[in-house]
Amino acid sequence: MPLQDVGQRLVTALWNWLRNWRSHALTLLVMLAVVLGVNAWQTRRIPDGTAPAFSAPLAGAPAGTLISLDEWRARHPGRAVALHVWAEWCPICRMEEGSVTAVQADWPVLTIAMRSGEAAQVARVLDQRQLHWSAAVDTSGSLSARYGLQAVPAFIVLDAQGNIRHAAVGYTTEPGMRVRLWLAQHF
Fold it and tell me: What are phi and psi of 138, to 5 degrees?
């Protein structure tokens, strides 16, 4: 196909799209409303205000070693931080692993392994997947329940004062994680 024909087809397609921009804008608005509505429904049980404190076993540490939210946050003074709740058996969590690892390079992220076994078992999973994450272990799901979570993955952002600022349940993109952290840090 000659280059002139390709260019003509592109111009025609662009012109047709521009003629119907209202229809496209309405479709995008409806899609945005659905996405925001689903997120609001999924996060409806997440508490407002100060994040619930917790102390849980730390994967990969000697038996009996606990990590507390307060101690972990104290290592990152003045910073927005994230809690990433995941499960070893969750395929969507697997899809997010690269995003969480990339975000962790720039922002403090504490992961919480929900219903994924004891600390040693979670440590093996992290090692097998080559994930260098700090992971609190929530064997029964009770810690996650205190945050109002009934599904994984979840990404919760706390501001520098320890207040829950943003929450997402389900797949979250790396840019989505970064934007939430940046907003909590600066606004």
Answer: -115, 80
